[in-house]
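Reading a protein record of the kind used here takes only a little practice. Each token is a code from a learned vocabulary of local backbone shapes. With that in mind, consider the following protein and its fold in token form:
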Amino acid sequence: MQGIDCSTIDTPLLSKNTYRDLMYSLSNFGIPTVRVELFGNGDSDGYKCGKYGFNDIIDLYDAAMHHVVASGKKLILFGYSIGALMVPSLVNRNRESVLAAIIFDTMIFGPKDYFVKNKIRQDILRGIPKDKIMYNARTFDSFIEIVLDGKHSINDIVKQNPQYSTYVEHGLFAGHDTNYYHELSEIDFLSGCKSISLPLLLLIGSRDCAIDFKQHLFFFDSISSTESDIIHKEVFSIDHSFRNETGSIDSECIKCICDFIFEIVMKHIPFDGGRA
């Protein structure tokens, strides 16, 4: 389950698309993967991606899960970024169908805080000096306050406050983001994780500029006393996009994920004469 993105995963032009690279990496390890793509992307018909909110995405994933489960399969859910916020809800809807869950880099405490930090991360990646980043962050923070207030449309806000136009023009705040964040405000993610009664792998990367490393640790401490079978793994060299210092998908991180999946799957596969 990916984060907030309206692009199709398999677009060949996106040579460094995290979602696509991650899926291909898992497939190369021999793990069957399922992709759910929004209508209106790739070669599909239907609404444009911006029409979907967070709860719509949950329903689409839920429908895809039922389709797979109907063929006799069990699932391991992998939630990345905002996609990880969907994991508790989908586990609780489909407890008999889910073997385990994996969460990577999404320990957030409020949509506004996360979105401002994500803006800072993007500025760092664009090479903007730190003093300008902090100034931009304060301006962006006030913009988010108005948006989440919900009384004005994005277009109205930009008309009344031209200084905010650059955020919309650069795609830092699109229509589907607005839908997501209003709905995210109503979700108790921490409580949802505490109710998960299956193996749960938490992966955190210390190089993530969008999320404070201390928040990851606080999140783990908050749920580590529950009945969930939690495995906590700090992947120190990885940023929010699963990439290491060289800018490529980190093989050690992928191996950690695959080892966890194999361990769970092997417990549920009967052996016959040494063959799975």
